[in-house]
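QA checklist item 7 of 12: single-chain prediction sanity check.
[x] sequence parsed
[x] length recorded as 114
[x] structure emitted
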Amino acid sequence: VQLQASGGGSVQSGGSLRLSCAASGRRISTYDMAWFRRRPGKEREFVAASSWNDGGTDYSDSVKGRFTISRDNAKNTVSLHMNSLKPEDTAVYYCNAFYGMDYWGKGTLVTVSS
């Protein structure tokens, strides 16, 4: 499966952004989908996930209550709605698919200014 993330940009603290990930090559209906990010000078970290099996979601403590992951299996897309953004959310965000192995797309940069 190939993944293409989009929707990054610059926003002020407290603002919102919506990231999208378009998948191609395979249907994502049987893939666990997730978003990760790499903040400046940090290792890549988990942000949010959506289970293919039961539709359950999971979030890192740092984004819980502010970010929402959603998937549209019919459109073969997964989104990340980000609200109440903080400067520490500045990062390159990566879309991830998992089915026996990890698949990664190129990231999209989100910059949050104070």
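[x] summary fact logged: The two ends are 37 Å apart (CA to CA).
[ ] second reviewer sign-off
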